[in-house]
Amino acid sequence: MATGEITAPFIEIRNAGVLQDVASNYAVPGIMARLGRKLVQGWSGAELTSGSVTTTGPATLVAVWWGDAYVYRMTAVPDNGFKVIERFLELPPNSGVQCAVAVRQVDRAGTWRVSWAGTPAQGAILWLFAFQASH
Prior knowledge:
The protein is mostly beta strands. The chain contains 1 helix and 10 strands, in the order E-H-E-E-E-E-E-E-E-E-E.
């Protein structure tokens, strides 16, 4: 990764009048994931879960995953109905920071989160935004 650099995705959300809720966390693989990565050659997997956001009605959820390792080829796949719309996960040396963006439309109020399955196992900064129309 390029020292002191960050990758910043830009996303346009139509008809979003209110940022209803936001959650951010620095998720790290569990102890077994870290131990397995060190002890078992070829083992590589981890699931990282975002914080939760709460909506009061229909919303557009935007999840962002930023990796934290010196890895130039990786995967980051979200669950819970999120679809990846942008990814920067195959990097040339000293080029930037890994990033993936996924979205989900929800049609009702609720509390939401997303888990990302990634290889190789690494920590990641996770953001989850909930945008709603103005009332």
